[in-house]
Amino acid sequence: MNISISRRIFTVFTLSLFLPASALAYDRITGETFASRSEVIAQHGMVATSQPLATQVGLDVLKNGGNAIDAAIAANAMLGLVEPTGCGIGGDLFAIVWDAKSKRLYGLNASGRSPQSLELSYFKEQGLDSIPKFGPLPVSVPGAVDGWFMLHERFGSQPMQTLLAPSIEYARNGFPVSELIAYYFESNQQRIGDYPGFAETFTIDGKTPKKGEIFKNPALASTYEKIATGGRDAFYKGDIARVIDAFMKEQGGFLSYEDLAAHYSEWVEPVSSNYRGYDVWELPPNGQGIAALQILNILELYDIEGMGRDSAEFVHTFVEAKKLAFEDRAKYYADPSFNQIPVDWLISKEYAKERQKLISPEQASKRLDAGKYEGDTIYLTVADKDGNMVSLIQSNYRGMGSGMIPTDLGFVLQNRGEMFALEEGHFNQYAPGKRPFHTIIPAFVTRNNEPLMSFGVMGGATQPQMHAQIIINMIDFGMNLQEAGDAPRIMHSGSSTPEGQMMTDGGYISLESGFSYKTRRELMKLGHTLRDVNGAFGGYQAILYDSKNKVYYGASESRKDGQAAGY
């Protein structure tokens, strides 16, 4: 990594002394400043994605009469081209849609299932105690394309040929690779570069594209063209499915044509919890969204504003609440088709009060149990002139996924199946035709049954933690939409996991620069382990609707190459 990238990604908040006052945000609780920028404000529409070209494609759709759902699909397709290091049509998709006509939220679970022909016994026969990260075994059915068409059928207004046309043109003619994505290309080559098709699809003369180089993906252009003209069946029942089937057989994999043909997405009811007068919405499992609600329910029992943001008391309380939520996440979050998951109980205020009793203000917990019940990724958000808003997240998992690149299709298949547990009796135990536990989660906020905010934060297990921090930054610490995403973040790692790993040592806390030495020292006195990590704090996009002035605010943080833009 070159020094300019490392400084921009990992130490952005230490630059505040060198920035003009207009570039600084002020924490009214602590009196500290940190690097930020102004929100984007527009009347007619807003798009926020993690790559500027994708933002512009979505904005063009809005300007040409498309709605928020049309623009979200077009932007996601573009991200699959310009940011294949985090997403693509080999992965899954989740979305929350505010429909202005019906004045309600709709949730979409477009995640795929495990191969029907792969049994749990196979892993035991191979002597495996966990599912490999790469190769053919962690591949599950990619759900993104079906997700596009589910969204389009219910809410879309422009033809899919129109929505995919910009990505097809860019894929054939090329685009300049942006800085952070160039870095991720290189790191992914180190992990999956030896698999068949990587060099042909994602390199220029054997090397991954550098910042500013023009990259083309004609194979993806051809795949998008087939989808645009042939619909979702071109992917799941046509030539694309047959190529995937043949390739996976060559690689010793189990994903088959029959698995693809049988795939379907589901409309699901979003679930919510109220935090100090604001209804925060997530999707139910097999995703991890309700962990954010569990964290917020516990923290609502404390005077967070009074603690102050840069205090050991706040960080300790936040981390302990996170640990408790993640124990339930490890035990209960799984495919609801295979288990009765107590979602209502987990996100209830009564349960939060029970769990809060386990938090000691004077000592970090080392090991916890789940409550007993009786009975890398991209995020984008779009809003349009009619009041429709979309919160959409899509991912390959582990950057570019499994390394399985079907012949001449231009994309990588996901490795989401790695997230299954192999422990018999576990809620998330591997089974054929089952959806794995999922990390990617879109979010939404309403107030008095009216839309307020569509937002998300990319980054695996960091996502529920960051969802909660965004809400806390805005509601408890008075930050605006942009400041809430730019503020220094807290991340706890080492909790028990849905794959069967147990926390026995309390894990560790990572703090971005911006938290004081005093806070760090006091956390260590409480028994916390602190550890610095590089670039693992997620990537945030958000849109907020101001009903008084009838304008949208957009935000896209500086940890990514992203952009918020409106008109």
Structure commentary:
It is a single chain. This protein is about 35% helix and about 15% strand. It has 3 domains: about 5-40, no CATH class; about 40-90 and about 110-265 and about 395-420, no CATH class; about 270-375 and about 440-565, Gamma-glutamyltranspeptidase, small (S) subunit (Glutamine Phosphoribosylpyrophosphate, subunit 1, domain 1, 4-Layer Sandwich). α13 (about 290-300) crosses α18. The protein has a 7-stranded antiparallel beta sheet. A 7-stranded antiparallel beta sheet has the order 9-6-5-13-12-4-20. β10 and β11 form a beta hairpin. It is globular and about 60 Å long. The protein is α+β, with helices and mostly antiparallel strands.
What are the defining features of this structure?
alpha+beta, Glutamine Phosphoribosylpyrophosphate, subunit 1, domain 1, 3 domains, 7-stranded antiparallel beta sheet, 20 helices, globular
Layout of helices and strands, plus pairs?
Blueprint: H1 3-10, E1 24-26, E2 33-35, E3 40-42, E4 46-49, H2 52-63, H3 68-82, E5 92-99, E6 104-110, H4 120-125, H5 144-155, H6 160-173, E7 175-176, H7 179-192, H8 198-202, E8 214-215, H9 218-230, H10 232-236, H11 239-250, H12 257-261, E9 266-268, E10 271-275, E11 278-282, H13 290-299, H14 304-307, H15 312-332, H16 343-346, H17 349-356, E12 378-383, E13 389-395, E14 443-447, E15 450-458, H18 462-475, H19 481-486, E16 490-493, E17 508-511, H20 517-525, E18 539-546, E19 551-556, E20 563-566
Antiparallel strand pairs: 1-2, 3-19, 4-12, 4-20, 5-6, 5-13, 6-9, 7-8, 10-11, 11-14, 12-13, 14-15, 15-18, 16-17, 18-19
Helix pairs in contact: 2-3, 3-6, 6-9, 13-15, 13-17, 13-18, 15-20
